[in-house]
Amino acid sequence: xxxxxxxxxxxxxxxxxxxxxxxxxxxxxxxxxxxxxxxxxxxxxxxxxxxxxxxxxxxxxxxxxxxxxxxxxxxxxxxxxxxxxxxxxxxxxxxxxxxxxxxxxxxxxxxxxxxxxxxxxxxxxxxxxxxxxxxxxxxxxxxxxxxxxxxxxxxxxxxxxxxxxxxxxxxxxxxxxxxxxxxxxxxxxxxxxxxxxxxxxxxxxxxxxxxxxxxxxxxxxxxxxxxxxxxxxxxxxxxxxxxxxxxxxxxxxxxxxxxxxxxxxxxxxxxxxxxxxxxxxxxxxxxxxxxxxxxxxxxxxxxxxxxxxxxxxxxxxxxxxxxxxxxxxxxxxxxxxxxxxxxxxxxxxxxxxxxxxxxxxxxxxxxxxxxxxxxxxxxxxxxxxxxxxxxxxxxxxxxxxxxxxxxxxxxxxxxxxxxxxxxxxxxxxxxxxxxxxxxxxxxxxxxxxxxxxxxxxxxxxxxxxxxxxxxxxxxxxxxxxxxxxxxxxxxxxxxxxxxxxxxxxxxxxxxxxxxxxxxxxxxxxxxxxxxxxxxxxxxxxxxxxxxxxxx
Length: 551
Prior knowledge:
The chain is an alpha/beta fold and about 550 residues long. The protein is built from eleven helices and 18 strands.
């Protein structure tokens, strides 16, 4: 039996897909959301460090399934390896309802005005595809505000003189500062820096029917058992379903976008929870699978008009894969710095996002989230053995006496950092998997080294007796901050989607996730994904009401 035709089918129930589902269904459109993962709940929040943190890959506990969803990673020497979601090279983003917002750290940053004008600000960076966005900060500002207030953001960035203008403050105050915050705050001020409370998609007070954060240590990488951490799974998706216009189908793996003889989308083909191939017809197809999977879906959608994949007429689909190259330092103190109060991260500076001599961009710096003893193993200094008696002695002495300061370096996009289809490896459903290749631009690592020295200086000023730095290497960057593979732009020859996130070649297919980001900022990208999803949904609905995209 054929499935009921709907106005829109959305592929992916993460940050972008959740917002689009809510906006379209509340406007009266019939919507089906296809999510390849499951809908987890607080009942899945087992306080088991090893169970949840199988590796240091954020979100791996919540999908995709290792056995059914491999990828192929090609290193800088051309060596190929099949990698699972729990492997670091996979560039995993949790596959479930809510996507990465189900298990993330929940920092809710607005990008800065210069982040949208990187080419205009810094000029050409040799070997890079650095470019301006086709929209400005002012275009997103109302939607940043909408995301902050509709989903709920706590914090206080009034002490950040480098931020873009805002019309309203954040809706909730910051959580009370912990011990690390109190140690780092006066040190930052002595250095002439401008510290402030990190904006967080995390309730500091009851908000929209959800509880306040209980400040446990099991936060990043875990389910929030009191639903205080904000994601699309506990905000906009339930709102969409409550309209009666939206249906969510989990365990649904999309194979391809269906196109008619003219190359226009008619729906999608997907495998349901019983592994049966289904066809869902729709007037609109909105791709929100994340930068890697969205590019993979477009490349797997072949047609006589698009022999190299939908939206790939000029070869841009899958290129410019960016994540964030984290840089910073850890400091060892001769007094206790650890108070066992989550989420840990609370204080930040934006002094080094721009204006660094000879560098094209930078990063914000903040103290890190609370770390579990299991995770601390990855933070020991390079001169300490990774195993044995000396290692154990260091961990016992240092665990409560260290502070880590890190920041997500704004990367220089590269055409050869890319997602392609692997010619041999297929997933559980027989769909060609993503093949990841390329590396980081040398200037990205240069920025990272600079940022690490600034983090180290802050720690030393705060009283650290020993410090060790962390700077990015040369390997490919993706991970939960993946972006760039379906670049937004006004010129079809140099981009995949137009400024409203519609694919240039087809008037009824959109990509609305971080894949459209031209550059990735020196901040966690989720609030920008949410804001752009609100903006793109508004433009889509304007076209819909004008009957431009109906069957």
